[in-house]
Amino acid sequence: MARLVRHFIEEPRPCAYLPQEQASLEYRLMVNVSPAELEALLERGWRRFGPAYFRPACKACQGCVSLRLDVASFVATESQSRAWRRCRRFRFEQGKPRVDAARLELHSAWHQTREQSRGWDPNVVTEEEYATQFAFPSATGREMAWYDGERLVALSLLDVTPHSVSAAYFFYAPDIARLSPGVANVMACIELARASGAAHVYLGYRVEGCPSLEYKGRFRPHQVLTSRPALQEAPDWGDGA
User: Fold this and answer.
1) Domain coordinates of the chain in residue numbers?
2) Is 39 strand, coil or helix?
3) C-alpha radius of gyration, the chain, whole number
4) DSSP 122
5) Cβ atoms of residues 155 and 145 within 8 Å
6) Chain CA centroid to CA 17, Å
7) Which terminal residue of the chain, N or C, has fewer Cβ atoms less than 10 Å from its own Cβ?
8) Rounded distance, CA 118 to CA 138, Å?
């Protein structure tokens, strides 16, 4: 059973997705969260990084909308299928998330491209920070590592529950960007869900007006969460526009 360590709502700050808005997140710091408990959180719009479970708590803006795919009804577009075919050249290995020099170097190289192309603040993740954010002990945490021969070229961090796969974080070597690895990663998550009998793939938040997150809405048909239900309230997922 989950143990709540701390629950708080952060002070408003400039939004990273919509600069004209103020953003705020609600956090629940928890340990010993079971797969069924995480699934209930995902259904209500929560996400996980390490021991931090969070969702938007912005008062003036409802721009962040939780999005998930119904695995049974999803139909890939030709461009999505092409991206998946291009990336099938790589070898995929699944396992528990871990930290090593190859993962730190890959994350650093990927983040630097975001700093240059999207104006992200510089951020060198230490081994301890990586272990806390991406490899924190969890019953649901998985990683899908992509290899070109022996070279690590991409890493997908996931949560796997009895009925869902949640795509939490993905980074890759800059020289494979031309292969559309982000699109292929979603396709890989869908294949994993189908193989395990999971009903849904959670893609995090769709933010209208944010170019870097627009690709999520191109996976169809998809469902969106219509509110921010409390843990004891039933979630309402509707068809995405």
Assistant:
1) 65-239
2) helix
3) 17
4) P
5) yes
6) 15
7) N
8) 31
87: closest CA among 186, 166, 169?
A: 186
Gap between the Cα atoms of 85 and 35, Å rounded: 31
pTM of this prediction?
Answer: 0.95
b/e map 205-225, b = 16+ CB within 10 Å: bbbeebeebeebbebeebbbb
CB contact set of 112 (below 8 Å; sequence gap of 6+): 174
Question: Does domain 65-239 bear CATH number 3.40.630.30?
Answer: yes
Q: Could you tell me the two tokens for 68?
A: 């998930």
pLDDT tens digits in sequence order for the chain, 241 residues long: 999 999 999 999 999 889 899 999 999 999 999 999 999 999 999 999 999 999 999 988 888 999 999 999 999 999 999 999 999 999 999 999 999 999 999 999 999 998 887 777 788 899 999 999 999 999 999 999 999 999 999 999 999 999 999 999 999 999 999 999 999 999 999 999 999 999 999 999 998 888 778 889 999 999 999 999 999 999 999 998 6
- List the structure tokens of 231: 């843990």
How far does CA 84 lie from the centroid of its chain?
18
